[in-house]
Design a protein that fits this description.
The chain is an alpha+beta fold and 197 residues long. Helices cover 53% and strands 17% of the residues. Helix 2 runs antiparallel to helix 3. The protein is elongated and about 100 Å long.
Length: 197
């Protein structure tokens, strides 16, 4: 067989294979058929499922929060109980000091021994308060501050530099961890107003 007799099969115009344009149209038709809107029944079922999922999540969150709240409350009660134990232990230590001072005062023959016993008790109380974060306010010689001090009496003075200065402390004031616990009760100097003629 020679090259001249060999012929390539020609593409027939009546071929069964669709043209590229026809293929494109068929694909678009298929896509359109897949995008058909869901039926009312299917939409309702989907909505029910989503609603149930949200409800389940809400119930889980409520249960978790309830458990968290119970745990926090339990921890809080334990902390209060533990705090009371520590407080009572320290109060017992102070009571020991007071009982010791009382025994000492019963045997004392002079007033100085009694004073010494009271001083020990007061010092022990101050140590206890300090350990709890309580501090006495400074008063004597300080400028009167209405946020920290309560003036029970005003004493007239002729000295300008003494005006609004605390002259006497009647009752101690305290702060607790930097916050005012009780104001100090004091006597304050007040400049005498000169009478005009």
């Amino acid at each position: 067989m020679t090259d001249e007799n060999f012929e390539e099969p020609s593409q027939s115009k009546n071929s069964s294979e669709p043209a590229p344009q026809e293929k494109k149209e068929e694909i678009q038709k298929t896509d359109n058929s897949m995008e058909k809107p869901a039926t009312e029944e299917e939409s309702l079922e989907l909505l029910k499922t989503k609603t149930q999922n949200y409800l389940d999540q809400l119930l889980r969150l409520q249960a978790e929060f309830s458990n968290y709240r119970k745990r926090v409350e339990k921890e809080k009660m334990e902390a209060i109980k533990f705090g009371r134990v520590i407080m009572i232990e320290r109060m017992i230590t102070i009571l020991d000091v007071m009982e010791g001072a009382l025994k000492h005062s019963q045997k004392a023959t002079d007033i100085n021994s009694l004073i010494k016993g009271f001083e020990i008790v007061v010092q022990e109380f101050f140590r206890f308060l300090k350990s709890e974060g309580a501090q006495p306010l400074k008063t004597l010689g300080e400028h009167f501050d209405p946020h920290l001090h309560e003036a029970l009496e005003q004493i007239e003075t002729n000295k300008e530099e003494e005006n609004n200065i605390i002259l006497e402390e009647i009752q101690k004031g305290y702060t607790l961890n930097g916050q005012l616990l009780r104001p100090a009760k004091v006597k304050v100097a007040k400049i005498k107003i000169k009478e005009t003629k």
